[in-house]
Design goal:
Helix 5 runs antiparallel to helix 9, helix 6 packs across helix 9 and helix 7 runs antiparallel to helix 8. The protein is α+β, with helices and mostly antiparallel strands and 367 residues long. The protein is built from ten helices and six strands. A hairpin with a 2-residue loop joins strand 5 and strand 6. The chain has a four-stranded antiparallel β-sheet with strand order 4-3-6-5. A two-stranded antiparallel sheet has the order 1-2. The longest helix has 27 residues. The protein is elongated. The chain is 43% helix and 12% strand.
């Protein structure tokens, strides 16, 4: 029995697999009833390991492998074994949860029956069918190529991980930081009388200048050793904010957790206080606590993912550069914006790719 053309049918609704079921009236039942239902569900939970590989897991009565015109028996059936079904799952979605497998089994049985009826009607013959099969073959091969590229990109030697760690140690620095934030804008009472646009602009500029002056004074006091939490409370009061000032202790963080413009804070030595750092939201002052580096064994998985994403992206780009068709503008019209290929072999990976890793460097300059 041919299984061609079933993939689209089988994958319909896969977005719903793994989503939580919608609440029903039973979710409001008393605790005793909920507990009883939970125990009953556990008692009926399947255990696929107890099912033999050659045992039937799907039986479709009336589905015959031979066409009716060849005299197939009316009581024939098609049987799918555990091994055959798990091969199907492995090809479609290896991590498919158990509840979704029941949905797949129903779809697969329905698809087999529909394919059988289509063959009985001769729909597997003719130019339209041949063209659709040609397209399907290209799609499957493109997906297989992408899968192969992913598997190859995932094979990263430990030495490559260690080399990346040594060349990019600044990426794995950790530090205990305190951060003082002074808002750029000051909360002010509405003017008692309507002001012109120019007067309103001057009022806003004066308020921002006063906040910058306050930030400059607080930075000097922070550098002199005053408590950051106390200074933060003064900053909020000076900005006219009634909300409680946040804790200035950031805990142990990485350089990458800071905005790029704040990266220079990681160049401070223990106990040092940064100059005033300004951005669109306000003014910032950092104080460096203990600083160290994440051990390579704890950074291994992160580096593995970085290198995998970089290598996969490079492979995809190299493949795309090799595709340079000449198109007839009289037929297709002028070239427009680039769009992903409909065959499934577009410029994007089927899985998210973080992008290229930063170039290996020994520099500790802020990124």
């Amino acid at each position: 029995m041919t299984h061609r053309g079933l993939v689209c049918l089988l994958l319909l609704g896969t977005a719903a697999w793994g989503q939580a079921a919608k609440p029903t009236a039973s979710t409001t039942a008393p605790a005793a009833q909920a507990s009883e239902a939970s125990e009953d569900k556990e008692a009926k939970a399947p255990d696929p390991s107890k099912v033999a590989p050659d045992a039937a897991v799907i039986t479709i009565p009336g589905l015959c492998s031979a066409p009716a015109s060849q005299g197939a028996s009316g009581d024939c059936k098609t049987v799918i074994t555990k091994q055959q079904f798990e091969d199907l799952v492995q090809a479609l979605a290896p991590n498919m949860p158990v509840p979704a497998r029941r949905q797949l089994a129903s779809r697969y049985a329905s698809g087999l029956m529909m394919a059988h009826q289509a063959e009985e009607m001769g729909l597997d013959k003719g130019p339209h069918y041949d063209e659709m099969m040609k397209i399907s073959r290209i799609q499957v091969l493109a997906q297989e190529l992408q899968r192969s590229m992913q598997e190859k990109a995932d094979q990263i030697p430990d030495k490559d991980i260690e080399d990346y760690y040594k060349a990019n140690q600044s990426q794995f620095e950790e530090a205990d930081l305190h951060r003082l934030f002074v808002p750029r804008n000051k909360q002010m009472d509405p003017p008692k009388e309507k002001l012109s646009d120019e007067a309103m602009k001057k009022r806003q500029e004066d308020a921002e200048a006063s906040m910058k002056a306050l930030a400059t004074r607080l930075q000097a006091r922070a550098a002199a050793g005053e408590d950051f939490d106390k200074l933060e409370a003064e900053a909020f009061t000076g900005a006219g904010l009634k909300a409680k000032a946040p804790n200035t202790a950031m805990g142990k963080i990485r350089r990458t957790a800071l905005p790029p413009a704040h990266g220079s804070a990681f160049d401070l030595k223990t106990g040092q206080v940064s100059p005033l750092i300004s951005d669109g939201s306000g003014f910032f002052v950092y104080k460096m606590g203990e600083k160290g580096a994440l051990p390579v064994d704890k950074a291994k998985e992160e580096i593995h993912n970085i290198l995998r994403g970089q290598r996969l992206q490079e492979s995809m780009e190299a493949m795309q550069k090799s595709v340079n068709p000449t198109l007839n503008d009289d037929y297709f019209g002028p070239e427009g914006p680039a769009r992903p290929g409909f065959m499934g072999g577009g410029t994007k990976s089927p899985h998210p790719v973080a992008g290229k890793a930063p170039a290996a460097t020994q520099s500790t300059e802020p990124k």
